[in-house]
Amino acid sequence: MNNFDNKKIGIWGFGVVGSSALTFFDQWNVTSIEILNNKPVELPHTRNIVFATLQAPTTIHNFFENNDFILVSPGIPLHQYQSYAHKLISELDLFYHHNSSPTIAITGSLGKTSITHLLTNILQKMNLHTIAAGNIGYPMLQLISKLQTEKFDTIVLELSSFQLQQSQICSPDLAIITNIYDNHLDHHASIDEYIDAKFNIIKHQNSLKKALMPLELASLVNAKSLDHHHIIFFSASKPTQEQLSKLAPDTTIYYVDKNSIYKMVNQVTTLLLTISQLPPITFQTNFLIILAALDIQNISVQSVANILAQLDIPDHRLQKIASHHGSDFYNDSKSTVWQATLQAVNSMHHDKPIKLFLGGLSKGANREPLLQALQNKNIEVYAFGKEAELLGTICKKFNIAYAAHDTLQDSFDACVKNITQPSSILFSPAGSSYDLFDNYIDRGKKFVNMVTNYTKNIS
After folding, report:
1. How many independent structural domains does the chain possess?
2. Average pLDDT, rounded, for the chain
3. Closest CA to 117 of 328, 276, 311, 288
4. What share of the chain is helix, strand, coil (3-state, %, to 5)?
5. Are residues 140 and 261 in the same domain?
6. Least confident range of 118-127, 157-166, 223-232, 236-245
7. Among candidate residues 28, 58, 89, the one where a domain is terminated
8. Are residues 386 and 450 in the same domain?
9. Which residues does UniProt assign to the signal peptide (predicted)?
């Protein structure tokens, strides 16, 4: 991984990762760079020989045969190409090979983007030279060139299971797993494979490095042979004696109890912060993880209390976008798993009925538990997209009022026609966006535009 001179390089996929990979490899005196993509590619000017191939079964085989090293964009399934595993290199491993700055790496099914964003902002406001990279911020391969001239106090990485699955050397100074729910089962062969990919964030750490994860995942530490690692836990509630009895006495646990956040070591507790000191911009558990991460880095949590009030959250994450005639409109397009949607619903004002937009692709996960949890709430579901009828069938099973439509616009039009009293209109699809949209950002912007047009035209 030190030298790519005189090698044939293959890049599969030409999105953000693929284009940054081309820039990275073009620094070397390679023999050639082949880009394999599912649609035509407009190639930039390069110093090396670069050509593009349209993806097809025969061209994929030739692509693997003809290249010495191959970088595959995250999300492309590789199960049937394991005979070429010796040729695969990962974006994440290239980054770690060239990086010497301290890193905090964050993964999980839910919350990782918000936590990455907020933690990075806090560290920056403390005048620590910090940058976010990976799924948000800088592409990792693009960041490598900055590392040649800049030293960072901390690099905060948001990592997906796709990125972690291919990694052989990822070893952050602090690894954070926010949670693990059924997700991306259209890509991973099983939930066990998905969990293994997530735990790759810890696997290559040495004893000097630390990991933070939910207390409910403690049983997996032994199962994954990670008991020699420095594991720290967090919990949304005070740990029970039964839970504590299964841990080493000196285990550190951060938890919420009686509207305060505590740290426990050797069963001695220390108050870190009260919930009232947290701005209402994200879920409580996200702040629990952030404060734990700061404390683990030996940063006084009390010292950042004033900074917290200056924070904001990225768009498309339970974002209140309008109030109109007593009804509130929320854009939570980032919700791609049902657990995120349930959190969003539970955060709504209970004195208003909820009109919930569900849609997108389930990615192999079962969304029935979400609707089961909603069956006794004052809620109507507006299902849209490829799985709308399936969602409607589940709503019917739990006696939840629903309407199913092919498009989001049709769903939105039906919803606003049925607003007869002040309501909470929540766009939190609980699925990926790729049935109808480019990504969750495109989906969220389309919803925001619909709300803007509606509130502008309805007096």
Report:
1. 3
2. 92
3. 311
4. 35, 25, 40
5. yes
6. 223-232
7. 89
8. yes
9. none
Q: Which of 260, 254, 208, 210 is nearest to 233 (CA)?
A: 254
pTM as predicted: 0.85
Structural domain including 73 reads: 8-89
Do both 247 and 98 map to the same domain? yes
Beta-carbon contacts of 401 under 8 Å, excluding residues fewer than 6 positions away, are 379, 380, 381, 395
For residues 227 and 173, membership in a common domain is answered with: yes
The encoded tokens of residue 373 equal 């949890």
Query: Does residue 212 lie within any of the structural domains?
Result: yes
395-427 pLDDT, tens digit per residue, is 999 999 999 999 999 999 999 999 999 999 999
Query: Token pair for residue 288?
Result: 């629990």
CB count in 10 Å sphere of residue 15: 12
Residue 159 CA to chain centroid, in angstroms?
A: 7
273 Cβ contact list (under 8 Å, min separation 6):
260, 261, 291, 301, 302, 305
Tokens of 244: 């504590």
Q: Give the containing element (helix H, strand E) for 206.
A: none
Cα(392)–Cα(367) distance, integer angstroms: 11
Q: What is the CATH number of the domain that holds 210?
A: 3.40.1190.10
424/426 Cα distance (integer angstroms): 6
For tokens 């062969």, what's the residue?
A: 189
**Quick one: 82 and 98 in the same domain?**
no
Residue with the two structure tokens 């495109």: 442
Token pair 């504590």 is found at 244
Contact yes or no for 430/363 (Cβ under 8 A)? no
* CATH number, domain containing residue 348: 3.90.190.20
Within a domain: 194: yes
Are both 168 and 184 inside the same structural domain?
A: yes
d(CA 169, CA 201): 9
Of 309, 334, 367, which residue is a domain's last? 309
**Token digits of residue 206:** 């040495």
User: In sequence order, which ranges of 278-419 are alpha helices (DSSP H)?
Assistant: 284-296, 305-308, 338-346, 368-374, 388-397, 408-417
